[in-house]
Amino acid sequence: MMPRYIAFLRAINVGGTTIIKMSDLRHMFESFGLEHVESYIQTGNVIFDSDESRASELEKRLERQLADASGKQIRLFLRTTREVAAMAESCPFVPQEGETVHVAILEKKPDKKSIDVLLSLRSEADNFAVSGREVFHLRRDRDASIFSNNFIEKTLGVAGTTRNLTTIKTLAEKYM
After folding, report:
1. How far, in Å, CA of 97 to CA of 34, rounded?
2. Tally of CB atoms within 10 A around 144
3. Which of these, 87, 114, 85, 113, lies nearest to 101 by C-alpha position?
4. In this structure, are residues 25 and 43 in contact, taking their beta carbons and an 8 Å threshold?
């Protein structure tokens, strides 16, 4: 059985910079030789099967192919459906009313010094937990929060993309 992956594309259909219809994105992934290609919502989540078992190699190849097909450099971060299910299960936060949890999906595990810097920035508005290649961000107060995906990337020195925990849980339930 082929591994099933979820590609989380960075900065797709957000802020008006890289707009790609999901039907076009699915077609691109199919043209790359991937099977059972689906997309979930408009923010660049693509689910597919591939016989490539080395996710890091597949990630690099897909980024090259996306650049060729779209004319834009698009970062993506692969996880297997099992990894996404584990991500959904391992969230250390249970948001209360008015709070949200986001997951930053990182290129690689950040170093301890960078993690310590991020954790030192916890406040009444924001809390963080780092687990491997993911950062869980509990936003208690949207107006007072100063954190964004870019801020987390710069603080950790690691590229990533962010999704709402609800999206992660839905993907885990739908594709596991």
Report:
1. 40
2. 11
3. 87
4. no
Share of the chain above pLDDT 90, in %: 77
Distance CA 97, CA 61 (A): 42
Three-state secondary structure readout of the chain: CCCEEEEEECCCCCCCCCCCCHHHHHHHHHHCCCEEEEEECCCCEEEEECCCCCHHHHHHHHHHHHHHHHCCCCCEEEEEHHHHHHHHHCCCCCCCCCCEEEEEEECCCCCHHHHHHHHCCCCCCEEEEEECCEEEEEECCCCCCCCCHHHHHHHHCCCEEEEEHHHHHHHHHHHC
Q: What pLDDT sits at residue 176?
A: 79
pTM of the model: 0.93
pLDDT digits (tens, 9 = 90+) for 90-123: 999 999 999 999 999 999 999 999 999 999 999 9
b/e sequence 111-138, b meaning 16+ C-beta within 10 Å: eeebbeebeeeeeeebbbbbeebbbbbb
In the chain, the domains with their CATH numbers are: 4-83 (3.30.70.1280), 86-175 (3.30.70)
What would the two tokens of residue 66 be? 């996306």
User: Cα–Cα distance between 129 and 134 in angstroms, integer?
Assistant: 8
